[in-house]
Amino acid sequence: MAEKTTGLSKDEREAVKQRAAELRAEQKAGKNRAAGDAAIQKAIAEMTDADKALAEGVDRIVKDVAPQLMPKTWYGFPAYTDADGKVVVFFKAASKFTTRYATLGFEEAAKLDDGDLWVTSFALIDLTPETEKTIADYVRKAAGS
After folding, report:
1. How far, rounded to the nearest angstrom, does the alpha carbon of residue 60 sit from its chain's CA centroid?
2. pLDDT confidence of 30, banded at 50, 70, 90?
3. 107 in Cβ contact with 84 (< 8 Å)
4. 3-state SS class at 122
């Protein structure tokens, strides 16, 4: 008899269910900017105050420097996709998995390649003029703007 494994955690199972629901909603709505933006705003509204402030800032920056990216949620997090529907950049709230920092991440579609080593995510604690500039620079490059 095979050994029983613990499998996915409760949070991971919830994330999978959330992603399945997102895919069903996307299929129903199509690639619709308004629907994607509404989903992001709903996800942000459900965050803790600290995460909400960071997510709102990231959302504002992405819309400002890379308006061609399409908003959507991805595992319940704000995300922005390229013309092919591939996630370029996403925000992961610290409170979702009780980590000590939020994450600004870049997926494979991000145009950040720089030799043999490049950044794919940042720990994000606060939005300052300096961190906002860094985020804008990375998002702009990731989006190919």
Report:
1. 13
2. low
3. no
4. strand
Q: Give this prediction's pTM.
A: 0.82
DSSP single-letter state for residue 115: T
Q: Do the bridges between strand 70-74 and strand 87-92 make them parallel or antiparallel, or are there none, so unpaired?
A: unpaired
Give the torsion sign (CA, 46, 10, 93, 95). positive
Q: Across residues 121-145, what is the average pLDDT?
A: 97
3 state DSSP class of 28: helix
Distances (CA, A) of 80 to 58, 109, 115: 11, 11, 24
Q: Can you list the positions of beta strands (E) in the chain? A: 70-74, 77-81, 87-92, 102-106, 121-124
Residue 37, phi then psi, degrees to nearest 5: -65, -40
Residue with tokens 């994450």: 103
